[in-house]
Design brief:
The protein is rod-shaped and about 105 Å long. With about 190 residues, it is mainly beta. The chain is built from no helices and six strands.
Length: about 190
Amino acid sequence: MPKLICIIDMDKEKGLILTTEDKDGKILQTVRMDGEAITLEVKGDSATSTVVQKQDSVTVTCKSFVLKAETIEVTSTKASSWKSDDTLALESAKAFSVTTKDELTQKASKDATFSSDKAVTLKAAKKFSVEGDDVQVEAKSGAVALKAPSIKAEGQKDVAMEGAQVTVTAKAKLGLKADGVAELKGGMVNVG
């Protein structure tokens, strides 16, 4: 067990200063109470950590911050922010939810991926938009179904439908119209 140097300094202007020094381990521990703040500081060769508590704030500065508890609840009555200059990971072993009573914005400067090992449901009570330079919808084994009171497919250049079998069925009227040439070709064509 190393021998520690312990100092208690009481001053009417500087306040109370408690110091513990481990010269062998080169670690200096200091507690300062100056009437405005309580400052805890642990200083070593490679890093320094500090906790500063004032009447309206607590500031923790350190190289590594670890918080372990059975349950954790964080509540803010005003704005909150969480920023990382490196990777930020959020992980849950059970259900994970993000809820807001206002707008929700998610943005990535590079690729964004949203995936699930099971079903994914996207739902909007009003307008739902999907936009991109190249949009692809693919079903690996099942069918792609589009269902709405009205469906409109429009291409600025062309629209192509292709399949081993293509069926167009109208329960009422079916209209086929071309402002230019209309062609109907097949190995066998049945009309009627």
